[in-house]
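Q: Sequence in, structure out?
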Amino acid sequence: MALIQAENLTKIYGKGETAVLALDHVNLGVDAGEFVAIMGPSGCGKSTLLHLLGGLDRPTEGRVIIDDTSLADLPDKALTELRRRKIGFVFQFFNLIPVLTALENAALPLALDGAGLGAAKARAAEWLKRVDMGNRLANRPNELSGGQQQRVAIARALVAEPKLILADEPTGNLDSRASDEIARLLRQVSDEWGRSVVTVTHNASVADYADRIVMLRDGAIVDDRRRADREELTVQAAPAALA
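A: Exactly. Output:
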């Protein structure tokens, strides 16, 4: 059963002759614990789709359903609460607060949701340890590498125990080694911690870790392929490459 479902999702920016069709009746389901990578050329609608899935923007047509709740039916306050409790966000440039430590950054979602500061920090410390940042709790972002900052951001995304993680180019600001480490960590988020993960990426090496790769072009899904199908194609192509 799908944890998140997009139905006929359409987004148009502007009006009249200047209108731009960013998404064109997209249908997409993501199961609980599934890792999905969304790929495609620049301007194809990847980030727009992610923003609509996360309730950061509202569609022109269609709807998004998360855990049996239609986002279109929610007023702004309820939508904010759903995002805070059921969705974790990871961004390309980490979006950590410079004056806060890793522990304080990771605890922030719980603190904003009304949890006591002690409880929030205890949960944050637990998640930072899980992402191999337990020895950097007191460090501020400028004292961490890019890969370490992204680990803190992932811990922050997980601290409220959401069912869904949305990652927008999470390796776009990292070197190849750190990119691979973050991709493996997102795989762990899906496999070991049971979260659904949807990531937008230009990096084929990152997408290789996903259960599915969804290709967008001109605002529409043009391919949706599971890992088993990709592996079968690779095996079939091998003899031809050796011929």
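Strands lie at 2-13, 20-31, 35-39, 61-66, 69-70, 87-91, 164-168, 196-200, 212-217, 220-226.
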